[in-house]
């Protein structure tokens, strides 16, 4: 068969069966003619020991000369180790980001992460990531896609940054699962937005004011003895909210709270004398294993945020979150000379850097320390004026 040209291809007529006409100038370049009369340019090559064919385009959309150029480019890619037909099939089989997210949850998050982390990941997927990226195929997602997602979420920088972090983990796993080439993660080099860290803790006056308000609310029966105890225990132990809210009597010893599980695994929390006395004042219910009892039923107090909002408003501390009581514990500890490494163990942190973020020194303590430094230097320098 001579060289495929427009004139020749136009003249070829269909037959009862599909047939292929090969070009005699470029090996592997041909024309497939269907019984319907449809004519499609193809290229044939060998990759990984197998013969493959790839459609280049329909005659009329492509000319013979354009199809020949495309065939040469594909043959050059094959010579460098590519397999265009297999790559296309892989792309067609590639899951979307939404589908990858489902596998990420079942095959990774639910196996290795705590329930609270699972909840956070599921929220990020459903409310932050999927609405923008969910329909994009895993094999096709690019740096530009991730950067656009990050930009669209700039009004909520914390969510935007956490979304990129989760996507990074998901796409690393996609590489492990052979859904993307190794070292192709497009989340690299995404510059995170600055996050304003909430450095809030109670100073001495605020602590006294909160104590007075809680005492009055208990006396007026606006909160139960258990709610009162929960707020005090958060301050006296530096525990996380869930660790106190879901505390069981089985975990309480005369000297420690022995938690079988927490955000960072098993924890042994020192129980100071004041906290121990407070626990001893609480009445136990035989059919309820929890320390902080709900108003009825066999479970713990379900929503401590509601009484907390009332208490903080009464104490003029409307910007203080329950988690800030843990900040306050850390701040008081550092201000009173507790070694950060020891505080890390008390708070149950995996990394010292986390402890140092919690341990915000009060303005008075910083001012006092700065004055002591300046005083020593001034004594050595002599008279200033």
TrEMBL record:
InterPro entries named in the record: DNA_brk_join_enz, Integrase-like_cat_sf, Integrase_catalytic, Integrase_DNA-bd_sf, Integrase_DNA_bind_dom, Integrase_recombinase_N, Integrase_SAM-like_N, Phage_Integrase
Highest taxon of source: Bacteria
Keywords: DNA integration, DNA recombination, DNA-binding
Gene3D superfamilies according to UniProt: 1.10.150.130, Integrase, DNA-binding domain, Intergrase catalytic core
Pfam families tied to this protein: Arm-DNA-bind_3 (PF13356), Phage_int_SAM_3 (PF14659), Phage_integrase (PF00589)
Annotated ranges, domain Tyr recombinase: 198-371
The keyword DNA-binding is assigned to this record: yes
PANTHER family membership: PROPHAGE INTEGRASE, PROPHAGE INTEGRASE INTS-RELATED
Family listed: Belongs to the 'phage' integrase family.
Protein name as it appears in the record: Tyrosine-type recombinase/integrase
Originating species: Parasulfitobacter algicola
Lineage of the species this protein comes from: Bacteria, Pseudomonadati, Pseudomonadota, Alphaproteobacteria, Rhodobacterales
């Amino acid at each position: 068969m001579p060289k495929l040209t427009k004139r020749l291809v136009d003249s070829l007529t269909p037959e009862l069966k599909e047939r292929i006409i090969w070009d005699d100038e470029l090996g592997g370049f041909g024309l497939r003619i269907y019984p319907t009369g449809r004519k499609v340019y193809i290229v044939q090559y060998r990759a990984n020991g197998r013969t493959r064919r790839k459609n280049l385009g329909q005659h009329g959309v492509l000319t013979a000369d354009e199809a020949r150029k495309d065939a040469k480019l594909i043959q050059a890619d094959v010579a460098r180790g590519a397999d265009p037909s297999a790559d296309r099939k892989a792309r067609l089989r590639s899951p979307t980001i939404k589908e990858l997210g489902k596998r990420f949850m079942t095959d990774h998050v639910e196996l290795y992460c705590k329930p609270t982390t699972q909840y956070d990941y599921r929220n990020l997927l459903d409310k932050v990531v999927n609405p923008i990226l969910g329909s994009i195929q895993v094999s096709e997602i690019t740096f530009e896609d991730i950067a656009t997602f990050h930009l669209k979420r700039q009004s909520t920088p914390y969510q935007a940054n956490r979304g990129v972090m989760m996507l990074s983990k998901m796409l690393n796993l996609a590489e492990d699962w052979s859904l993307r080439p190794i070292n192709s993660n497009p989340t690299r080099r995404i510059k995170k937005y600055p996050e304003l860290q909430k450095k809030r803790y109670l100073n001495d006056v605020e602590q006294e004011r909160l104590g007075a308000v809680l005492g009055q609310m208990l006396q007026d029966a606006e909160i139960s003895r258990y709610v009162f105890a929960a707020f005090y225990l958060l301050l006296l132990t530096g525990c996380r909210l869930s660790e106190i809210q879901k505390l069981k009597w089985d975990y309480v010893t005369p000297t420690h709270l022995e938690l079988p599980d927490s955000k960072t695994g098993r924890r042994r929390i020192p129980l100071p004398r004041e906290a121990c006395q407070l626990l001893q004042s609480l009445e136990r219910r035989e059919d309820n294993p929890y320390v902080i009892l709900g108003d009825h039923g066999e479970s713990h107090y379900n929503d401590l945020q509601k009484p907390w909002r009332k208490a903080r408003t009464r104490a003029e501390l409307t910007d203080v979150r329950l988690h800030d009581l843990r900040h306050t514990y850390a701040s008081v500890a550092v201000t009173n000379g507790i070694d950060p490494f020891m505080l890390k163990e008390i708070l149950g942190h995996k990394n010292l850097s986390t402890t140092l973020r919690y341990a915000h020194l009060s303005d008075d303590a910083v001012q006092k320390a700065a004055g002591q430094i300046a005083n020593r230097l001034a004594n050595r320098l002599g008279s200033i004026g």
